[in-house]
Amino acid sequence: MTHGRLSRRHAFRLTGAATAASVLAGLTARPATAGVSPAQPGAPLARVAPPVAAFALSDVRLLPGPFADNQNRTLSYLSFVDADRLLHTFRRNVGLPSTATPCGGWEAPDVELRGHSTGHLLTALAQAFASTGDSAYQAKASRIVSALAACQAAAPAAGYGRGYLSAYPESFIDRVENGQQVWAPYYTLHKIMAGLLDQYLLAGNQQALDVLVAKAAWVKARTDRLSTARLQAMLRTEFGGMNEVLANLYLVTGDQNHLTTATRFDHAEIFDPLANRLDRLAGYHANTQIPKIIGAIQEYQATGQARYRDIATFFWDTVVGHHTYANGGNSNGEHFHAPDAIASQLSDSTTECCNTYNMLKLTRQLFRYDPSRIDYLDYYENALLNQILGSQDPASAHGFVSYYVPLRAGGIKTYSNDYDTFWCCHGTGMENHTKFGDTIYFHTDDALYVNLFIPSELTWRDRGLVLRQETRFPTQPSTRLTVRQAGGTALALRLRVPSWVAGADSVRITVNGVAQPVSARPGSHVELNRVWRAGDVVELTMGMSLTLEPTPDDASVRAVRYGPVLLAGEYGGSNLTALPRLQPDSLTATGQPLVFRARANNASVTLSPFHALHHQRHSVYWRIG
Ligand SMILES: [Zn+2]
Q1: Once rounded to an integer, what is the mean pLDDT over residues 97-124?
Q2: What does UniProt give as the signal peptide span (predicted)?
Q3: Ligand 1 centroid vs 424 CA: distance in angstroms?
């Protein structure tokens, strides 16, 4: 944490140990409310709906493959985890009885962040219901929402403000308002609010919206009495995406009060340099900032004020262009460092998974405003494949997840457990693996985007279209799309040709076996216009090649990639004290897909996909030459 307060790493040692992308899909499914007034006097006023719409998460079903495997493990955990244990501190906080065993980790009764995981759980259960249609997830969440509603109703009798809902006393809010030490109270409240909104949007839980609206009124009442200077001082303490969830609530309800409250969480110290296109991120706690920027793009949608969009776009360009490692993650020791410091910032605490969770949320939203920028999707694929997919332990039936992904030579992934971690990344981990369907496809009125190569089936209800995508990507560099049901009208199918493909010559696109005479420039969408019929089959094949990707601060330090797949050296139980020196001309394919052999430090080493490398030490970066 910034400003000398208790850091997460510190707290992690002490204890032993924000809002679904799918929300955005739900938001676009609802008509805009008429008569919206400006966020600030004299400011532009209109909502700006993204030109590209997301599908509801419930319109996409994963088919068997590594993403579905991860989802299934997280689903097992969501079914297993005892909600009463996670509700224990909420109930005790308002004097309601609870005999449940308290949780450990960051949910322990004496940890100031307690309650955040219950919010993540609500989002994850909403996504699990939407992604699978299994009403057991909806029912489990419904019981949690009812329990939270009872806690909220008991708040005044416990001496708290009307609408207050938390697992810690309201005095934590006094402390953050007064500049006294406290961990991150609004961070936690954001998770609960986002979970409630997701329950409403994805699981149709009306009580969740009622609880959220009452809680938002409490936030407004608390912040009504603070001066701008006092508010801005308070915003130096991590507050998650408070501006995001309140802007989203405004987009859902049309109630101007929520937008007014949202803008109170616009952090000028962060927003102003970004609006002036200045990278002043060095030294800031990374994941404290990213949710504020997701809030900015939602505030752009809510208000039409271009400044919000400029802030979000410049932030993305800056972070992805100058602060991002080969696996799509950012931060070392949870902080941003000097621009382009990558080779000089390798450790066991690189690339916190929450940061990447949040960058993916930001990325998909920016793509929806500018679908010509394939670099958004290239980043999305890289981070999803090389960090998020590999952040879950495949040996764990409950889908235990990583906090950091270590990128120092000799690093090894470590994982959460059932009840004694509950770090931030445990929470976003529950969310990551229940929403893989959210960015594979997007659409406009007359075009369908196929962005990611993940086995899945899309149902586009408005167009009567059912499309099945079968692929073993990236093991095989191809995908096959079958129209299972067609509406009988013309539709443009926009297939992503990634920037990593080994030249336009290596791309082959067929429709019903007939090669299509289309230009397949790497880093573009190829458009196929047709009246689609049931039984039509589109096949896309792409060439992959080996690349050695230099770090910006040291061209002799490189990562090895095959197509989009980041490769890492398998070092078993052997620790390393320095980057291994790799002989690039020794890289040789083995008979096994995506697996290579090479000489490094005068020994033979196997390089395999980093996302699939677990329970052994690895090297992602190499010294070349
Ligand atoms: Zn985290």
Answers
A1: 98
A2: 1-34
A3: 4
Question: How far away, in angstroms, is 546 Cα from ligand 1 center?
Answer: 32
Cα 156 to ligand 1 centre (Å): 33
Q: What is the CATH number of domain 8-30+73-439?
A: 1.50.10
- Give the pair of three-digit tokens for residue 504: 């336009």
Residues forming beta bridges with residue 619, ordered by sequence position: 569
* pLDDT, position 496: 97
Note the pLDDT tens digit of each residue in 469-485: 999 999 999 999 999 99
Chain position carrying tokens 């979000």: 312
Average pLDDT of the chain, as a whole number: 93
Q: Quote the strand ranges of 453-507, DSSP E.
A: 456-460, 465-470, 478-485, 490-497
| C-alpha of residue 386 to centroid of ligand 1, in Å | 17
What is the C-alpha to C-alpha distance for residues 384 and 400, in angstroms, rounded to an integer? 17
CA of 358 from ligand 1 middle (Å) equals 10
Query: Which residues have CB atoms below 5 A from the ion given as ligand 1?
Result: 352, 354, 424-425
> In 3-state terms, the chain is what percent helix, strand and coil (to 5)?
40, 20, 40
Q: Which amino acid is at 108?
A: A
Residue 170 backbone zone (phi > 0: left; psi -120 to 50: alpha; other: beta): alpha
**Ligand 1 centroid, distance to 287 Cα (angstroms):** 8
> How far from chain centre, in Å, is Cα 405?
15
- Give the amino acid at 558: R
Cα of 535 vs centre of ligand 1, distance in Å, is 44
CB proximity list for 279: less than 8 A, separation 6 or greater? 273, 318, 322, 339
* Separation of CA 318 and ligand 1 centre (Å): 21
Q: How far is the CA of 397 from the centre of ligand 1 (A)?
A: 21
Distance CA 256, CA 249 (A): 10
What is the C-alpha to C-alpha distance for residues 464 and 523, in angstroms, rounded to an integer? 30
Ligand 1 center to 168 CA (angstroms): 20
How far does the centroid of ligand 1 lie from the alpha carbon of residue 407, in Å?
16
Hey, what amino acid is at 286? A
Residues contacting residue 84 through CB under 8 Å, at least 6 positions apart: 98, 100
Ligand 1 centroid – CA 13 distance (Å): 14
Give this prediction's pTM: 0.94
Distances (CA, A) of 480 to 98, 221, 382: 53, 54, 21
- Going from N- to C-terminal start, the domains of the chain cover 8-30+73-439, 442-541, 546-624
Please give the backbone phi and psi of residue 564, each rounded to the nearest 5 degrees, phi first. -90, -5
- pLDDT tens digit string along 495-549? 999 999 998 899 999 999 999 988 899 999 999 999 999 999 999 999 999 999 9
Cβ neighbours of 224 (radius 10 Å): 10
| Ligand 1 centroid from CA 355, angstroms | 7
Distance of alpha carbon 333 from alpha carbon 8, whole angstroms = 9
Q: How many whole angstroms from 367 Cα to the centroid of ligand 1?
A: 24
Residue with tokens 């340099």: 273
Task: Tell me the two tokens of residue 161.
Answer: 């403000």
Report, as an integer, the average pLDDT of 411-415. Answer: 98
**Ligand 1 mean position to 425 CA, how many Å?**
4
Domain pair 8-30+73-439 / 442-541, same fold: no
Q: What's residue 519's pLDDT?
A: 86
